[in-house]
Write a structure and sequence with these properties.
alpha/beta, 7-stranded mixed β-sheet, globular
Length: 586
């Protein structure tokens, strides 16, 4: 980029805009410096693999005032073309070389553009207050230019050099094209992608802090994996396989979710399904059956106990503390499916207590359900740092950086205070949803099932519909869906479904014979009061429509029965008259 180009860029901007740009720039740098100087720690492996001297030369060619020049070119978030000039300038001037030892940035006595002073940064916390979008984009661009595919002078002659045919695709991913990890270890550093590697480390640090904030205070390590919950559970099971070569079985208190069941099948193990016990309205873990099965099969032949926290009512979270004690007593690993439990302090408390009194090896949670990002990522966390690292090394090959990027942007946008606010609002919405469903159910001679141990999901009986036939129950579900109500589930009685060769009776109800049909709704993170109000309004209309149709069918059946009775009476009368006539004739 030559002097004439920068001079032309400077002439486009007024002095007032320059001052505004300077102020915005200082604000951006302050936030990024706080994050990196106080929040994150490189692992020793990262320090050995990638040495990052975090100073950058800000002096523009032909300018005596570096701050003003950067402001003129970068400006603030409002001038996209100036931001692009800044980006190209950094690519051109911000890098010295990519050596075998790693990547080094140019150093200078000027203010650090990358906004951190040292490669070794201590701490590990999410910033309390969220960042604005312009600061976030600046930060992401600064990370992206540390990847070799963004070097203007880079010459790539390999089969995977971060080439992207579409500029739209490149912008969508902020030019993080190399992904994360290396062959054989998803958490390993890529020498040619220091920015992506740093992004991955930062994301894992942020997520670890949020897990602690949500209630699991003693968690040791975690990492984001670009697979949904089911496949992430499979990864955990495959890691345990090497530790327990005799194991054939996974003990699993029943929960009717296909992904959980198939995760065990995919890993090559035989699920041993433990039926739940009915206590009041709740379906709870049968601890005696679990322990009896452990003794029957033998601890050495059991890979792990696979328990669940978040689930659909009337199923409630497993008794994690008691299961953790069983696992500790019999020296059996314990993997917890915590799919959407991060948003619930009760679910997180169960995990913390289970680890305190017994054994929990790893717990897996979804990114989209807990952090409101697109589907495709999960978090694997645990209390033993070395075991979590073993799981990360079990992942074959590199991985997409998109899930890590999504959750990083989200958490930096919210800040820890913003996320805590969402958790608080979710609890309030749970109480509000519970009260509204209770009122509506009573108006239709139904009731809200009493499931106090489930902190997220609720269930309402559909007995008056089920008394007629299952068709009315499934019809209610169809009506809700066509009226744009998503997430609600209607569960009829007696459904039978086969999953990977195993037949589940009463499928979707988590037991063979639940006493009644019911409807599910959940208060998940991000739900608003207007969502609840609209759901109740539409559910009310659907219930009225189903009742009206049932009444009509009953009237039609009554009319048909009455017509049959009249016809039978007429036929009998004709027979009597005929007999009388024949008697008279004879």
């Amino acid at each position: 980029m030559n002097r004439e180009s920068f001079a032309a860029g400077e002439r486009l901007v007024s002095p007032a805009y320059v001052r505004q740009g300077c102020e915005a720039r200082r604000s951006h740098e302050h936030l990024i410096r706080l994050l990196l100087e106080k929040s994150f720690a490189f692992s020793p492996r990262l320090e050995c693999s990638v040495a990052i001297s975090a100073h950058c030369n800000l002096r523009l060619p032909g300018s005596r005032h570096c701050s003003a020049s950067v402001s003129r070119v970068a400006g603030t978030a409002g001038a996209r073309h100036h931001t692009r000039l800044m980006f190209v300038f950094l690519v051109e001037t911000g890098f010295h070389h990519v050596g075998q030892a790693g990547l080094k940035l140019l150093t200078s006595s000027d203010r650090p553009f990358l906004a951190f002073q040292s490669a070794r940064i201590t701490g590990g916390k999410c910033p309390e207050n969220g960042w604005d979008e312009s600061t976030l984009e600046l930060f992401l661009h600064e990370l992206a230019i540390m990847d070799s595919n963004n070097f203007l002078g880079n010459c790539g002659v390999g089969e995977r050099e971060g080439r992207v045919a579409s500029a739209l695709v490149a912008r969508r991913h902020y030019r993080f094209i190399h992904g994360i990890g290396r062959s054989g270890d998803i958490s390993a550093v890529q020498p040619k992608a220091a920015g992506s590697s740093l992004l991955n480390k930062i994301t894992n640090s942020l997520v670890l802090d949020i897990i602690k904030l949500a209630g699991v205070h003693t968690v040791a390590n975690c990492f984001v994996v670009p697979m949904a919950t089911g496949m992430s559970l499979t990864l955990c099971f495959l890691t345990l396989r090497h530790k327990r070569p005799k194991a054939k079985y996974i003990i699993w208190p029943r929960i009717d979710q296909k992904s959980c069941f198939k995760s065990m099948i995919t890993a090559g193990f035989e699920p041993v399904v433990i039926e739940n016990v009915l206590e009041g309205d709740e379906l709870r873990t049968d601890l005696k059956a679990v322990e009896a099965k452990v003794q029957e099969l033998g601890p050495d032949y059991i890979l792990c106990i696979h328990s669940t926290t978040s689930c659909f009512a009337p199923r409630v979270p497993d008794r994690l503390e008691e299961l953790a004690v069983i696992c500790a007593n019999y020296d059996i690993p314990h993997i917890v499916n915590n799919a959407y439990g991060v948003q619930s302090s009760k679910c997180m408390h169960l995990i913390q207590q289970g680890a305190r009194v017994g054994r929990i090896d790893a717990f897996v949670q979804s990114l989209d359900k807990n952090f409101m990002v697109p589907v495709g990522g999960a978090i694997i966390a645990g209390f033993n740092d070395s075991f979590i690292q073993e799981i990360s090394k079990m992942y074959p090959g590199r991985a997409s950086a998109s899930p890590s990027l999504d959750v990083l942007i989200t958490l930096l946008s919210l800040g820890s205070n913003g996320y805590k606010k969402l958790l608080k609002e979710r609890k309030e919405m749970f109480s509000y949803l519970s009260n509204q469903i209770k009122k509506l159910s009573e108006a239709y001679n139904e009731r809200l099932l009493h499931t106090p141990h489930n902190p997220i999901s609720l269930a309402m009986t559909l007995k008056t519909l089920d008394e007629h036939h299952d068709k009315a129950v499934t019809q209610l579900g169809s009506m809700l869906f066509t009226r744009q109500v998503s997430g609600a589930r209607v569960v009829p009685l007696g459904s039978v479904q086969t999953v990977s060769g195993y037949t589940f009776r009463g499928f979707m109800s988590h037991t063979n014979n639940y006493p009644c049909a019911y409807l599910n709704a959940a208060s998940a993170i991000g739900m608003k009061m207007q969502d609840v109000d609209l759901f109740i309004k539409r559910l009310d209309k659907c219930l009225k429509a189903v009742r009206k149709e049932q009444s009509k069918e009953s009237d039609d059946n009554y009319d048909k029965t009455e017509d049959v009775d009249i016809e039978e009476m007429a036929l009998k009368l004709d027979n009597v008259l005929l007999d009388t006539y024949q008697d008279a004739s004879s």
